[in-house]
UniProtKB/TrEMBL annotation:
Keyword set includes Transmembrane helix: yes
Protein name, as recorded: Protein PBN1
This protein's UniProt keywords: Endoplasmic reticulum, Glycoprotein, GPI-anchor biosynthesis, Membrane, Transmembrane, Transmembrane helix
GO cellular component: a single term: endoplasmic reticulum membrane
Cross-referenced InterPro entries: Pbn1 (IPR042322), PIG-X/PBN1 (IPR013233)
Residue runs in coiled coils: none
PANTHER family: PROTEIN PBN1
Recorded GO MF terms: mannosyltransferase activity
Transmembrane segments: 492-511
Presence of the UniProt keyword NAD in the record: no
Pathway membership, UniProt: Glycolipid biosynthesis; glycosylphosphatidylinositol-anchor biosynthesis
Record-stated family: Belongs to the PIGX family.
Bilayer topology annotation: Single-pass membrane protein; Single-pass type III membrane protein
Organism: Cladophialophora bantiana (strain ATCC 10958 / CBS 173.52 / CDC B-1940 / NIH 8579)
């Protein structure tokens, strides 16, 4: 097993290397305030048998999860996805008997809507068939909690007397992102967990003490393990396309003291400068009443401040984009966006539709749709300073995206509640000529949207800023959808009345047409008589 523990501190919480205790196979440090990433790399022989057996049937499998609550990103962990469970998958052989959905139900819970990859997954668009940057199949579920995953690891991985394993796994309940990555080339599974800040209460089961609002590091290395611990801080890089980190690295079991380090690397994901970051936020809501054709509204607090990143490389071109993940009960009419109607775009402050994939049938009700839903990459219009937009320069800038709800199954009630995750919003900028983005130590790929851009694209993510209300801090919108009330009418009665209405309508049409056929018949009978008289 290989383990990499990375702690990124704010410059105001700099660590004194003298406080880091390095022993033969142990590293100790108390009261550390930092963002944290844990990355484990495991061979197939180190995994539970059912996991290893299935992974041997995969060409690649990438699992991403994000919570419903907002969190702050930290350099170099700057990418964002919509809340929920995202899966990018390519089978080893086409047409193979696929058990992925069974495995997902075992690990993440039976509430996932997944029958089989062929039936439930969608095929994302590829910008290049030869150099594909995305997997061949894509899946999403609005999974709000990882409690089933935590319980699975408890029983399948941790020994009952392994307090360190049990405690570390329990911290996944407050994680801000969880990733799994496997490919058939490396034959290794990489498991990554990220926390944007220290927990309010941290209990050390080995030392049997509690730390408040801080991490307590007690990292141990097994005989056959390689464990690397980095305690780092971000600093300004020389190149706009780079990120830079400095601090201390320690290989537990090999080093006898922490070693100072300073390194930089090109990155596709970036943050805004301090003077711009507080204005680059957005809020999502639905116009009320929603009905069956809701308008998704993305609101930016300051139209005048919605500008391209100031820290972008010189000479680059940027565009404001949004990537929507739409469950099966809600969809976009691609024909409305593909028309490139200038009046439509100006009215809604949207631009070109770059991609739409998945279930976009305009008529099918939700209970007959097999796919999980659809995705959509849409360019947004930013204020351009024209006379018509000058009045909004100091106010809120709104973008509206017309969507449609599918008919839901009838129930004993007049409405049903459905949910939709917030889309992500970002500036996509072309990098300088010659810039290459090799896989950096903290790169996060297979996010669903980055494969829809060229390989030299940089992303500057805006922060979601939910308005506190009945459910404060949720990056999920809830919609009330009108449905057939079974208490008012049964499906059989509605079907019977529909057939009766169609029959009566058809009969009425025949009755209205009967006089016309009668006149035509009379005219045909009289025509020869008239000819004889002439």
């Amino acid at each position: 097993m290989r383990r990499r523990s990375t702690y990124v501190t704010h410059p105001s919480h700099a660590v004194n290397p003298a406080d880091i205790q390095v022993r033969q196979r142990q590293l100790l440090l108390g009261a550390l305030k930092a963002a944290r990433e844990e990355r484990l790399t495991l061979g197939l022989e180190e995994l539970p048998a059912e996991i290893a057996e299935y992974l041997r049937e995969c060409h690649e499998l990438h699992v991403r999860w994000a919570p419903e609550h907002p969190y702050n990103t930290t350099t170099p962990f700057l990418s964002r996805i919509s809340p929920g469970l995202h899966i990018q998958y390519t089978p080893l052989h086409q047409g193979q008997v696929d058990r992925l959905c069974n495995l997902l139900h075992r690990v993440f819970g039976k509430q996932l809507r997944c029958d089989s990859p062929d039936a439930t997954f969608i095929s994302p668009p590829l910008i290049s068939e030869r150099f594909a940057q995305t997997s061949s199949l894509q899946y999403y579920s609005l999974l709000s909690s990882l409690k089933h995953l935590v319980a699975y690891i408890y029983h399948a991985v941790c020994a009952q007397n392994d307090l360190q394993c049990l405690h570390t796994v329990s911290l996944m309940n407050i994680a801000d992102s969880v990733d799994f990555d496997y490919d058939s080339i490396s034959h290794a599974l990489t498991f990554t967990v990220f926390w944007s800040k220290q927990p309010p209460v941290f209990y050390d089961p080995i030392g049997d003490f509690t730390t408040l609002d801080a991490w307590n590091l007690d990292v141990q290395s097994g005989k056959d393990d390689r464990v690397e611990v980095g305690i780092l801080s971000a600093s300004s890089a020389n190149e706009p396309s780079d990120l830079q980190l400095s601090g201390f690295l320690t290989v537990v079991g090999e080093d006898d003291h922490p070693k100072a380090t300073l390194f930089s690397f090109p990155s596709r994901h970036h943050s805004f400068g301090p003077d711009q970051a507080r204005f680059q936020k957005y809020t999502v809501s639905f116009d009320t009443p929603t009905g069956l054709h809701p308008n998704l509204r993305i609101s930016f607090p300051s139209a005048g401040s919605l500008t391209e990143p100031k820290n972008k490389p010189p000479g680059t071109v940027c565009a404001l984009q949004t990537y929507l993940t739409l469950p099966s009960h809600i969809f976009a009419d691609k024909y409305a966006f593909l028309s490139n109607d200038l009046l439509f775009q100006k009215l809604h402050h949207v631009g070109q539709l770059h991609s739409i994939a998945g279930e976009t049938d305009l008529e099918a009700p939700d209970y007959v749709v097999k796919k999980w839903g659809s995705t959509m990459l849409l360019e947004l219009q930013a204020p351009n300073g024209s006379a018509g937009e000058a009045g909004a320069a100091n106010g809120v800038w709104d973008v509206t995206i017309p969507l449609h709800l599918r008919y839901l199954e009838p129930k004993n009630g007049s409405s049903s509640e459905v949910e939709m995750p917030w889309p992500i919003v970002f500036w996509a900028c072309t990098a300088e000529d010659g810039t290459k983005f090799p896989v950096n130590p903290f790169d996060r790929i297979q996010l669903g949207f980055e494969g829809l851009f060229g390989p030299r694209t940089m992303f500057y993510h805006l922060d979601p800023a939910p308005v506190k209300g009945d459910a404060p801090g949720r990056l999920v919108e809830r919609i009330s959808v009108p449905v057939l009330n079974l208490k008012a009418a049964s499906p059989w009665s509605i079907e019977s009345l529909t057939i009766l209405a169609i029959a009566l309508g058809f009969l009425w049409v025949l009755l209205r047409l009967k006089p016309m056929f009668g006149r035509r018949s009379t005219g045909n009978n009289q025509a020869p008589t008239t000819k004889k008289r002439q």
